[in-house]
Amino acid sequence: MAAKALAWLRKDYQPAERYRHSTVRVGDYLYMWGGGQPGLPEVHNNEKKKSMCSVMEVCHLRTGKWKRKPTTGNPPLGVVSYAAAAIGREIFYFGGNCNHGDCYHNSLYSFNVNTFNWKELSPTTSHHGSMMKHLCGMIAIKVNGEDYLVVIGGFGPSSNNTPKQPGAQYRGERLNSGYQRCNEIHFYKVSTGQWISPTVTGDRPPPIYGFTLTSINNSSAILFGGDTANGESNNVYILNFTDTSVNCSKLSNPGGSVQWPKERSAHSSVLINTSSGPHLLVVGGYLTYDIWIIDINNKSWKELVSIL
User: Fold this and answer.
1) What is the pTM of this model?
2) Which of 35, 88, 81, 87 lies closest to 57 in space, CA to CA?
3) What pLDDT is attached to residue 307?
4) Is 50 exceeded by the pLDDT of residue 8?
């Protein structure tokens, strides 16, 4: 009887509360790493920070149960507001803030969900490549049988950073002095470890951070919302990729009686495939308390829930 009572009282494991992290699905599992959390040292690196960052929180979707599993290798230092995307059994982590001062990264790491091992693919550097930043977007694409990562936008220091990307813009309005948004677009070719600066055509998004970037299929994605020099956005951008280029198409609120969500940043989005085509579900955001869905093919929005 006592054993049964103890079993009833025993609670399933739950990860520590956190923010500005990412959760990535691979198969029947969600993998959650890092983020701002209680007790995380505000330092560049030390043993406690490495220990806290050397675990992966894993949720089995079929049971809803979490497990905390140790990892091997050196985890990224950009533990807060990084970008993440999966290809096969690998999860890739780009950039992020170091959880102290104005220390930002443009490193790229991979994490293997079979071996639970970290691997640094591209170190943080101020000499070349994407800006050292956080709050950017990253997706995986596949073109002509090759896997690529695409990194877009973000927020970081305006000095002691990488050379500006030709064609990209950098804006600091509405930010603290010494910081900037960007609309950089970089590709990373996984098979060669090569960073590529693609040709950009169409309606390139402005310098932006805090948006969502969601894959539609192997060679296209949808970008929604975000923080710009003119305030928060409710524009939609459809992005179509080749191995050397990206074409951007902008959708804006036409006004009138058309349903369209309000401007927002720091929201969440997920793709839902239905018999009528792909839809993007958008949840919340900073000072927004609603849920919307857009039919991507028909370019039509519908509000599902409004809490306030």
Assistant:
1) 0.95
2) 35
3) 73
4) no
